[in-house]
Amino acid sequence: MTRMPAPIDGPNADAFSACNDLAAAKNANLYRAAMRLGPERQRFFLAAYASMRVIDDIVDDGFLELTDHERDYAREDTLIAIDHWQQQIQAAKIDGDNPHPESGPLSQQVFDALRLTLGRSDLEVDPWVDLADALRRDVAEDPMDEWDNFIAYCEGATAAPASIFVYLLSARFDNEIGYTSPLTNPPLYHARDMAIFCYVVHILRDLPDDIKGPDRLVTIPAEILIAADITLGEIRNAIGQKKYDEL
Questions:
Q1: Theoretical Cys-Cys bridge with 162: which of 170, 195, 196, 235, CB 3.0 to 4.6 Å?
Q2: Alpha-carbon gap, residue 170 to 100, rounded angstroms
Q3: 171, 41 in Cβ contact below 8 A?
Q4: DSSP 197-244
Q5: CATH architecture of the domain covering 13-246
Q6: Tens-digit pLDDT profile for residues 68-116
């Protein structure tokens, strides 16, 4: 496993090391980019990324991969887990001096790391709240019929996490006051459009693999398909035929 360039020492080393393990294992490109930041920014990134990774895995791997019947059975518990996760995030921000997390999916170590970064910053919890809203859409399996539905989903699923990285690029750290940013507009203002563009590229890149699964795994608004006069089934057949022709 890739190690952090900046050594983690002191009484909080275990907390950030645990976050590092989660981040290094899940997203090599973003992780490597973040490890070019200074030590204090690295720690903030690790805490933020690990906290989001925990709940994203619960939804993506622990819920969306289930069968229809299993998802119906697990839906309420998964939504409750998202609620508890959001409460833990808010506790890490508001009760920065409280070492005991609210009950929820975040481990003590990840909670501690977030408390020592987000809890000592002028960044609000909005990115985490927006992500929670997007994940609730995933769990509820709300249909994405219109482009506006897609954009609203992107605000939480991709723009919100990206806004944290924008915040870190601008933030300064002081031992006495913690993290502060000189940005005059919210970080989301600077991150939103590029994050959504990258998400569209991500969808198109992964379409040949995602189309093999159920339709719900393909994040393309219905009105876009209608405007193009094509169905997901036709896309699936076309991709399958292209791969057959290449054999």
A1: 195
A2: 30
A3: yes
A4: HHHHHHHHHHHHHHTTS-GGG----HHHHHHTT--HHHHHHHHHHHHH
A5: Orthogonal Bundle (1.10)
A6: 999 999 999 999 999 999 999 999 998 655 666 668 999 999 999 999 9
**DSSP notation for 121-187:** BS--SHHHHHHHHHHHHHHHT----SHHHHHHHHIIIIIHHHHHHHHHHH-EEETTTEEE---SS-H
**Partners of 180 in the β-ladder:** 172
Tell me the torsion sign for CA atoms 155, 161, 163, 164.
positive
**Exposed/middle/buried for residue 43 (C-beta within 10 Å: 0-12, 13-18, 19+):** buried
Report the SS3 class of residue 99: coil
pLDDT in tens, 164-209: 999 999 999 999 999 999 999 999 999 999 999 999 999 999 999 8
Q: Tell me the backbone φ, ψ of residue 121, rounded to 5 degrees.
A: -135, 170
Mean per-residue pLDDT of the chain: 89
Tell me, what's the pLDDT at 85?
A: 97
Answer yes or no: are the C-beta atoms of 22 and 49 closer than 8 Å.
yes
Angle CA(149)–CA(153)–CA(158) in degrees, nearest 5? 145
What is the rounded distance in angstroms from the CA atom of residue 196 to the CA atom of residue 194?
Answer: 5
Q: In this structure, are residues 72 and 139 in contact, taking their beta carbons and an 8 Å threshold? A: no
Question: Which residue type is seen at 224?
Answer: I
More confident residue, 109 or 5: 109
